[in-house]
Amino acid sequence: GQQVMQIPQYQHVQEGEDFTTYCNSSTTLSNIQWYKQRPGGHPVFLIQLVKSGEVKKQKRLTFQFGEAKKNSSLHITATQTTDVGTYFCAGRHSGGYQKVTFGTGTKLQVIP
Amino acid sequence: GAVVSQHPSWVICKSGTSVKIECRSLDFQATTMFWYRQFPKQSLMLMATSNEGSKATYEQGVEKDKFLINHASLTLSTLTVTSAHPEDSSFYICSALTVTNEKLFFGSGTQLSVL
Q1: Taking 70 as the threshold, does the pLDDT of residue A97 lie above it?
Q2: A34 touches chain B (CB under 8 A)
Q3: Which of A104, B1, B47, B50 meets the CB 3.0–4.6 Å disulfide criterion with B71?
Q4: What mean pLDDT do residues A76-88 have?
Q5: What is the DSSP code (8-state) at residue A26?
C-alpha cells in the first residue's frame, strides 16, 4: 500500500537554530500538503504543493516538492518556541478517490 | 478559514455500548469527509472516506460493521463505534475536503475512552 515516511521522528533544537523535516512517499503524488499539530490539538493546514520542483515560503518556513513528486521537505529558519509541535506531510496519491495519506510526523521541540 | 465542528470532544463509555461522533462543516459544503484515528505520539491513520449520498470507503483492516459511517448531507458526517471495547479507545478526528478539493480542514477531535 501507499506509505509516506518522515524523518526524523523527533528533533530537539536550540531556539534560533534551523530545522528540517523530510517526507518520502512510496508512490508518486498528485500533491502534498503540510500540517502542524500542537500538543493536544488538531492538525492545522499550512500549505499545499502541486508542481514538480515547487518551492513555497511562509515567513521562516520553506516548503519544497521534489522533481519526481515523491518527496518533500519543510525547513524552518531560526526556530522559535512557537514552532513547537508535530509536523505532518500528507500526500494525495495520483488517481483514486482523493485519498490522502499522512506521513509519520516529526515532533519538534525547541529549547529556549 | 473554513470551520469543521466535531463533537463530542471526549466521551467515556462502558464496554459494549455504541458511541456516535458528529462532524459538521459549518461554513462550507463538503462532499467528502475523512475519518482518522490517532494513537498517542503516532500519525493519523485513515479509517474511511465518507462521501455524501453514498457508502463510505473503508481502508484495509477497518471493520465497516464496527465503524458505521453516515454522510447524509453536505455538511454532516457521523461515525458510530458499535459495541465499543477498550481497544477502541483512541483519538478520532474528522476532516472535510473543500469543494475545490484543495484543502482539508480538521475537526477538533474526539477522545474516546472505553472502560
Answers
A1: no
A2: no
A3: B50
A4: 97
A5: S
Rounded Cα–Cα distance for residues A101 and A93 (Å): 8
Beta carbons within 10 angstroms of residue A8's beta carbon: 13
The end-to-end CA distance of chain B, in Å, is: 37
The three three-digit cell numbers of residue B81, written as one number: 463505534
Do A60 and A14 form a contact (C-beta atoms < 8 A)? Answer: no
Cell numbers linked to A54 = 515547487
Question: What amino acid is encoded at A34 in this protein?
Answer: W
Q: How far is B84 from chain A (nearest CA, A)?
A: 23
Q: Give the integer Cα–Cα distance in Å for B53 and B25.
A: 16
Could you count the other beta carbons within 10 Å of the beta carbon of residue A67? 10
Contact A88 B101 (CB under 8 A): no
How many Å apart are CA A76 and CA B68, to the nearest integer? 40
pLDDT of B55 strictly over 60: yes
Alpha-carbon distance A18 to B107, whole Å?
31
Interface test with A, best of B46, B94, B95, B104 (most A CBs within 10 A): B104
